[in-house]
Amino acid sequence: MVSTDRVGDGVSSDPMSAAPHDAALDRLQRDADDLVAHGVRRVHVLAWRDLDDPDAGGSEVHADECERRWAEAGLEIVHRTSAAAGQPATADRNGYRVVRRGSRYSVFPRTIASELMGRMGRYDALIEVMNGVPFFSPVWCRRPRILFLHHVHGPMWDQILPGPLAAFGRALEARIAPPVYRRGWTATPSEATREELLELGFHPDRVVAIPNGTDPRFSPGGEKTAHPSIVAVARLAPVKRFGLLLDAVSAARDEVPDLTLTIVGDGPERAALAEQAARLGGGAWVEFAGRIDHEELVGVYRRSWIVASASLAEGWGLSLTEAGGCGTPAVATDIRGHRSSVVDGETGLLAAPDDLGDAIVRALTDHGLRARLGDAAERRVRSMTWDATAAGVLSVLHRAAVGPDGDG
Questions:
Q1: Integer Cα distance of 133 and 225 in angstroms
Q2: C-beta of residue 43 within 8 angstroms of C-beta of residue 75
Q3: Dihedral sign for Cα atoms in the order 23, 25, 31, 33
Q4: 295 FRET partner, CA 20 to 30 A, in 28, 33, 186, 265?
Q5: How many beta carbons lie within 10 A of that of residue 112, not counting itself?
Q6: Half-sphere exposure of 345 toward its Cβ, with a 13 Å CA cutoff?
Q7: What are the C-alpha distances in Å from 388 to residues 2, 25, 62, 254?
Q8: Using an 8 Å Cβ cutoff, are 381 and 218 in contact?
Q9: 169 with 147: CB under 8 angstroms?
Q10: Where exactly are the structural domains of the chain?
C-alpha cells in the first residue's frame, strides 16, 4: 500500500503502514521507554467522548486501541472527556484511566481549567483529539503536546448545527484554530485529511498521516447470503446520509429486485429513516439491526455481498476497512476520507451521490469484479494493524517531546 507519512523533506516514508506486528510493537516500546527516560511518563488525552459513550464511533475506537497499547508499554494514560449517560465519573479501562466531567460543551472550559489548576495531578505530555471544537491546548499547555485530528468537518457543520452556529463552526475550524495549531505536530489517519489541513495552512513538515488499524477479528469466513445483500454500519446521524443510501438501494432494486439492506447502528435519525424505508416499501428488504456486539458484526460483514456508505464526510471510513478484512468490498461516496479506506476500482467502488445506485448494481451483478475487489480489500487490510497505528501516533509524540525538531 502507499505510505502516507511526510516529514521534513515532504517524501512519503511511513514504515508503519505495512510493518509486521512485532516490528510495530518493538518501535512503540522503544519510543515509550525513551519518553520515560526523558521524564515523560504521564500522558493526558483530551477528547470529546470515550469508548463507553452511547454515541461512540470510530474516533473513540481509535483512541482506545492506541491508549491500551501505550499503557501496556509503561505509560500512565488519563483519557479526559465529557460525561456519558449511565457511565461513572471515573473508570479504569484496558490499563488507562477515564475521567468524565462536563457536558458535551462545558467539557472544553472545564477540562482546560482543571488542567491549569492541576486537579488531575501532574502530566508530562498531552494529546488533544479534536472533533470540530478545539481545546486550544497550544495556548495554555507548556508541556510537550500533539494534536490528533480525524477529519475536517467542512460541510458537516450544516448537518450538525443551525445556520448561524454552523457558520461559526466553519470559521472556528477553518480560520480561528489553524493559526493556533499549525506550528505544532499533528497526526491524522489519512492522506486525504492531511491534504485538507495543508490547505488550511498547517505546516507540511509537521502533519503526519498514520493509517487506521483493523482488528484481526475482522477476517473472512462462513458463507455469503444466497441473495444479494448490503450492510451499512454507522451512527444514524445526518452526516452519514442514510437517507441517500436508502434511495440508492431502492433504485438499485429495479435491476436487483431481491437485494436486502442491513443497517447497523443507532442514533437520532432512526425514526426518520424507518419512516423513509416504509415509504419506499422497505419492510421486506430493510433491516434496522441497531447496535450489535463485535461477534455479530463480524458475522454480518462476512455474510454481506458488499458494505456501503453514503457519508458526506469522513476522516477514514472504519466500517469499510472492517468489512474489507472480512473479504467484503465497499461501495461508497467519493469523498476524501473514503479515498483513503477504499482504493477505487481495486478494493471497492467510489461514486458520486447520484451514481451510488448504479455502482451498487455493478458490484452486485458483476460477480467476477466483486470477487476481485473483495480479495484485494482483504489483502490490503491485513497490512493495517492497530499496533502500527498506536506506534505511529506515539512516534509523533516522541518527536514533539524529545526529537530534534520537537516542541517540548
A1: 42
A2: yes
A3: negative
A4: 28
A5: 17
A6: 0
A7: 15, 7, 12, 44
A8: yes
A9: no
A10: 21-213+385-402, 229-382
CB neighbours of residue 281 within 10 Å: 11
Give alpha helix (H) positions in 1-149: 21-37, 58-72, 107-117, 137-140
Q: Structurally, what CATH architecture does the domain formed by 21-213+385-402 represent?
A: 3-Layer(aba) Sandwich (3.40)
Which fold would CATH assign to domain 229-382? Rossmann fold (3.40.50)
Distance CA 277, CA 285 (A): 9
* Other CB atoms within 10 A of residue 295 CB: 9
Q: How far apart are the first and last CA of the chain?
A: 33
Paired strand residues for 264:
233, 290
Q: 3-class DSSP state for residue 371?
A: helix
pLDDT tens sequence across 347-373: 999 999 999 999 999 999 999 999 999
List Cβ<8 Å contacts ≥24 apart for 368-374: 370/305, 370/306, 370/329, 373/329, 373/346, 373/347, 373/348, 373/349, 374/324, 374/327, 374/328, 374/329
356-365 and 367-382 helices, crossing angle to 10°:
100
The reply to whether 21-213+385-402 and 229-382 are identical in fold is yes
Where would I find the beta strands (DSSP E) of 102-256?
Answer: 125-130, 145-149, 186-188, 207-209, 229-233
Q: Bridge-partner residues for 148, per DSSP? A: 129, 187
Q: How far is CA 261 from CA 20, 226, 321, in A?
A: 36, 14, 18
What does each of the 408 residues of the chain score in pLDDT, given as a tens digit?
Answer: 222 232 222 223 333 344 456 899 999 999 999 999 999 999 999 999 999 998 888 889 999 999 999 999 999 999 999 999 899 999 999 999 999 999 988 999 999 999 998 877 889 999 999 988 899 999 999 999 999 998 887 666 666 666 777 778 778 887 899 999 999 999 999 888 898 899 999 999 999 999 999 999 999 999 999 999 999 999 999 989 999 999 999 999 999 999 999 999 999 999 999 999 999 999 999 999 999 998 999 999 999 999 999 999 887 889 999 999 999 999 999 998 899 899 999 999 999 999 999 999 999 999 999 999 999 999 999 989 999 999 999 999 999 999 864 444
Q: What is the pTM of this model?
A: 0.81
CA 247 – CA 233 distance, rounded (Å) = 17
Mapped onto helix, strand or coil, the DSSP state of residue 311 is coil
